[in-house]
Amino acid sequence: MAKKLDEYRPPLKVMETAVMVDGGFYQKRAKLLFGEKSAKDRADELAEYCMKHIKKTGDRHLYRVFYYDCPPSENVVFNPLTGKNFPLSKTPLYSWSKEFHEELTHKRKFAIRMGELLETQGGYSLKPEALKALLSGKKGIEDLTESDLTLNIRQKGVDMKLGLDIASLAHGKIVNQIIMIAGDSDFVPAAKLARREGIDFILDPMWSTISKSLNEHIDGLEQCTPRPTPKK
Fold first, then answer.
1. Against a cut of 0.90, is the pTM above it?
2. pLDDT per position as a tens digit, 197-212
3. Whether the Cβ atoms of residue 71 and residue 97 lie closer than 8 Å to each other
4. Helix (H, G, I), strand (E, B), or coil: what is residue 131?
5. What are the Cα distances from residue 84, in Å, to 66, 78, 88?
């Protein structure tokens, strides 16, 4: 009996895929694209979004989701508008972040990688649009509100943890594909390392604009949500 044509086809190569998520980036883009959500709903949304990548083609198997972030700051910062010190641990964002990270620890195949905060560099500064309004004379100092301020707290250790994870995955031949949900050019060294080791490196910037340097060191772009409609 003649064999069917399908029997001569080689088996489909399964791509063992790791999904790596820049936590701060995802939260900012998800808020813009999907709106405000509770900590639990945002965590459920992230898990679902990662699985959309895995299901996008028929040859991917999820190894693990690596989520990189920092704990919320408990620092006490000086507010230049009110002239008072303010404990960040009393803010709704602090409570939300703690709950969000806790929710992620219960997600199957999620590995949470937490960096540290450079607390000594934390403080409020004017948003660019507020500074522009001040310089142009459209606003006076007396017109400024807390919505014109942004809190600047830098993180450390996240890039290093991500690089170590990629090195471990690559040298151990654990995965052959990485999907990175990020948009920062700080991850160029990680992308270069992955590609040197033969890993297919895909970037999901969630429709944000990425730098030329980052675009040069990836194997493709892939996004799992419709392009947002530009505001008129």
1. no
2. 999 999 999 999 998 8
3. yes
4. helix
5. 38, 6, 12
